Write a sequence for this structure.
């Protein structure tokens, strides 16, 4: 990646529980349609990112933030020949809900009502969070993160609509998702899945895309990568994780993982292990008896 001018680091900081961190510069990178379990708060430093969200292409340039709610389908690609450079924080829904309850009047499940916000000050706060992490300053990192999330919620925050499953199609889509989640390593064919749910393949495809923003096979790949991330975080090797989630081999996992997460699984796991080792080393220096 470095040879192409592209680079990315995806990591965690033990002193910011429930938050993933990312710094990246991409030129030719294209993120396929995917979702995140956490919120995406991405501050563009230079260049332009285009991401498909809510049925339309969204554009985020320098000083803007790309904001994506959990479990929301979106893509990502460069909007200019030189690509885009950005820093991002991915706070958990629980953390955002906690901040919203303390600092806003939002009722219900909080989220962002706009996918792009032009706010250089808020974008700068995101970069400052990452800088504080680099400097191993947990007080500053946690403070700046909460200030940033509060500012964003006050500007473009609101209660997220509940996903409707009242229609027969919505119920079938929800049941299909549950089956795919349970049988991730050995999923049924579309025809078998539709027959088991008492519907037709075409009806199921249409209902699933309406409910989740992507067809079942795309959702399954995304879900497999999500689960692989959890396994890698727990110490499972990439080769073992690939088999566990239903990919044919590690190269298969590598390809899809990189297209969705932005870094290969080996680099992803290595950065997280190294961060844990740095934190442990710092604590041991502070307390020689630890």
């Amino acid at each position: 990646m470095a040879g192409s001018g592209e680079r990315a680091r995806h990591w965690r900081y033990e002193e910011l529980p429930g938050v993933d961190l990312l710094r990246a510069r991409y030129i030719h990178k294209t993120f396929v349609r995917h979702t995140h379990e956490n919120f995406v708060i991405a501050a563009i430093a230079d260049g332009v990112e285009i991401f498909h969200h809510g049925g339309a292409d969204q554009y985020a340039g320098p000083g803007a933030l790309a904001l994506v709610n959990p479990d929301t389908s979106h893509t990502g690609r460069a909007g200019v020949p030189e690509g885009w450079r950005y820093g991002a924080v991915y706070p958990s829904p629980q953390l955002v809900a906690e901040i919203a309850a303390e600092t806003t009047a939002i009722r219900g499940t909080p989220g962002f009502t706009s996918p792009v916000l032009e706010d250089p000050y808020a974008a700068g706060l995101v970069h400052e969070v990452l800088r504080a992490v680099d400097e191993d300053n947990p007080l500053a990192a946690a403070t700046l993160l909460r200030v940033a999330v509060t500012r964003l919620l006050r500007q473009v925050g609101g209660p997220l609509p509940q996903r409707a499953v009242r229609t027969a199609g919505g119920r079938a889509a929800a049941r299909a998702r549950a089956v795919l989640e349970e049988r991730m390593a050995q999923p049924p064919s579309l025809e078998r899945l539709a027959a088991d749910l008492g519907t037709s393949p075409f009806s199921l495809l249409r209902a699933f895309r309406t409910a989740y923003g992507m067809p079942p096979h795309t959702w399954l790949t995304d879900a497999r990568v999500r689960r692989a991330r959890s396994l890698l975080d727990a110490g499972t090797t990439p080769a073992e994780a690939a088999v566990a989630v239903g990919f044919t081999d590690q190269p298969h996992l590598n390809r899809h993982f990189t297209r969705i997460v932005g870094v290969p699984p080996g680099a992803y796991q290595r950065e997280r292990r190294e961060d844990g080792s740095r934190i442990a080393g710092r604590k041991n220096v502070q307390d020689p008896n630890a």
Q: What stands out?
A: The mean pLDDT is 93.
